[in-house]
Design a protein that fits this description.
alpha/beta, Alpha-Beta Plaits, 2 domains, four-stranded antiparallel β-sheet, globular, binds ribulose-5-phosphate
Length: 225
Amino acid sequence: MRSKKASIEAVRAAKRSAAQAALERICHDCRLGLGTGSTTNEFIALLPKVRERIKAVASSSQATTALLRDAGFEVSPLSQCGTLDLYVDGADETDDHRRLIKGGGGALTGEKILAASSRQFVCIVDESKRVKLLGNFPLPVEVIPMARSAVARKLAAMGGQPQYREGVITDYGNEILDVRNLRILNPEELETAINQIPGVVTVGLFARQRPQAVIVGTPQGAYTL
Ligand code: 5RP
């Protein structure tokens, strides 16, 4: 049987190979947006290799901004970058149609804004993130604090089991509900329905706004959905 250390190394190698494949998408004078999480961090670790090709960098979270600054990049606010050429980010789940659940790290609002502000959104994942049906991973919903209970009741009426992510305040001062047991048969419809609930800031479904490519890394190499 494979040791725990060996399987952690294999997942890391898979994330790295997805990150390596995404690096090839960086054009000259690239205005680049970056998401959040361990897979994105693997991508950030490779960025110094292509530093001269990057014109501007925008980040979806404070955590990513700190990492980019440590790597010597100047991080500009999105409002100063204009439309981004490329946005690279991970995901918690992807189906075969490139519809995603994101927000495990709590940065879903910044991530959705950057994805919407980019010509190309490329998602990088390891194979464990591939699913037939979205929803095994609890669906994150960022809510304005005063609306948390009201939104939770609406989500429960939709068949979900919302749970308050205790102790987490987002970069925008909001709270997160993680919704279990939703059968996400129509992700586009559900994304719209949840967005309509007053008090919802962002739902972590990226279906209407899915990436143009999902790069799936394996320890042996990467392939694209
Ligand atoms: C953060 C996210 C991340 O992209 C997602 O949680 C995947 O993270 P990781 O690459 O660490 O598995 O959506 O809000």
